[in-house]
Amino acid sequence: MRFNIATLVLLSVGAVSAFAPSNVGYSTLKTCLNSEVAEAVAEPATKEPVYIPTRFDRLKANYKGVVADASAEGLGFSYADFDDAVQKTEYAFNRNDIVKGTVVQYDNGGCTVDIGAKASAFLPVAEASLIQRSYSAEGDTTSNAIEELVNRNEEYDVEIISEEDENGQLLVSVRRIQYREAWKNIEARKETEEVFEAKCIGVNRGGAICLVDGLRAFLPGSHLAGQMPTDDLVGQVLPLKFLEVNQEDNKLVVSNRKAVVETQMANLSRGDIVAGMVKALKPYGAFIEIGGMSGLLHISQISYDRIEDLEKVLIPGQQLKCMIIDHDKMNGRIALSTKTLEPEPGDMLRDPDKVFEMAEQSAKKYHERMEAERKAREEAAKDIVLGLGDSLDDLTADEEGETSDPLAYVSENLDSVL
User: Fold this and answer.
1) Which of 110, 160, 222, 273 could disulfide-pair with 124, CB 3.0 to 4.6 Å?
2) For the chain, which domains are there?
3) pLDDT on residue 220
4) Average model confidence (pLDDT) for the chain?
5) Residue by residue, what is the 3-state secondary structure of 33-55?
């Protein structure tokens, strides 16, 4: 449009110049022409951008969504009442609080737990369970995968163990709740003095380590009944009793021997025939394992004949039968004898198998012989007592049957001396 105006001006100037003097209005036309040309070459004015709706905008404008019925008719409270209740409700999650939480999903190194806070809490693997390993005879097997410790979509009691981070997330623990429950159960069991079972999970120089309600308990080697603290002990389930329970010092000590004494030695008595195995040889005798207990077969109780070399008579691992000749139920000690089972003196050196085969018959004869000797001793003691009674009667009675005091003259002599 501006170009056309400039063109018309030029044409008009040309026309005027053709019929008018050359100097008439030249300056005026020149000024007009320059202004028009400058306006023609100036930048065009900016326009407002035209908004074109997208496909999503058109769909959004056409579809308003499901309209919910917001009517409060028939309800026992109004929206104002609901708003007041929300305002009065406190959503406080403090450290050491125990709350209900549902496992939502497994994450790397733990899982997400919904506890009703503004952000989900996080449960680390180390805090997911008190027992995170399974133990067998081959040793401990790591089983601390979060999928094996907690189940998804299951509700647990969790303890808050941290403050909120910058994202409002909390750390929670299941292990700490189980830890306190384990000590509580152990304290109650200690009061009842009951015998319980626990699995051995390791050995060391001083004894063994057992797992009691998820807690590690020390079993001293001196309180092992009939066994030594070796690697063969790992994975075995042992009967135990508590020796020391101290939660403040985190000290838990148990005894296997004390439990065995109560469970097995209660039915043992002197003269019983028991089967056992030779566990170890010492210069003074052999240790025999009997149903988890350890008994001593002294070298003087092996045979009536003298034994010069014990290793020629017994070997470790040998099965044999013995007679209980004494026991200490309080300390779990048993004294054994094979000498009392010999059909003939020296049979343990010549034919030990014959001794073990005839153990019951030999024990029966031994008991009969001991009973006869006991009765003979009682009769002899009775005769001695009766004889002493007759002698006393003779001393205290005169010919007329009257009694006299044999110490009367001694008393009179002492009085005269004094």
Assistant:
1) 110
2) 98-173 (2.40.50.140), 187-261 (2.40.50.140), 264-366 (2.40.50.140)
3) 92
4) 77
5) HHHHHHHHHCCCCCCCCCCCCCH
